[in-house]
Amino acid sequence: MPVGVPKVSYVVPGEDEATWIELYQQLFYERKIFLCQVINRELGNQVAGMMIHLNLDNKKKDFHLFINSPGGSLLFGMAIFDIVQTVQADVNTICIGLAASMANLILAGGTNTKRVAFPHAKTLLYYTLRMMLHEPGSSYFDGKTDYCLMETDELLHYQHAMIRSYSEITHKPEWQVNEDMFRDSFMSPEEAQAYGIIDGLSYSLTW
Hints:
Blueprint: E1 7-10, E2 19-22, H1 23-29, E3 32-35, H2 41-57, E4 63-69, H3 74-86, E5 91-100, H4 102-108, E6 115-117, E7 130-133, H5 145-170, H6 174-182, E8 185-187, H7 189-195, E9 200-201
Parallel strand pairs: 3-4, 4-5, 5-6, 5-7, 6-9
Antiparallel strand pairs: 1-2, 7-8
Helix pairs in contact: 2-3, 3-4
């Protein structure tokens, strides 16, 4: 029998008595957001909308953005990154598995000193948690040449914005970031910390 989303007892803000709500709804009220699939239009709009709504509700309470994503759309990934950078509340970014491509930039874009990663099982080095910088993908426009060239220009613009953002966050020159992205550089949590993508490792849930 399939298992549905579990429900938990929770006092919804503004209510006097506890009620049964879905687990993810309770986590939403607690400002815990999950980025755990390929980044596309729907996910980008959902995450951006949730963060904007919660920021309007309380500009001081921290966000916790849990990341386990292979990346995805450069355009909608940059939208999430911009929201993370502009909300007034601090954003804790936590990598709980894989943070690749655009998801990796979002991880790096969290509030300084509040970007962490969980270590994976240590039995095999290959299974250590990995974060990857690489060239982001784009949906290719199947149309006239002029439109294809326009999309190429836009893609290059966003790629440069991505490189510039990494450079500002990690304090590494843009040429080095560009080379690392071109090579598809996999990093362990320790390497990601040395690179400037995260601030440390987390071995327990303290939120």
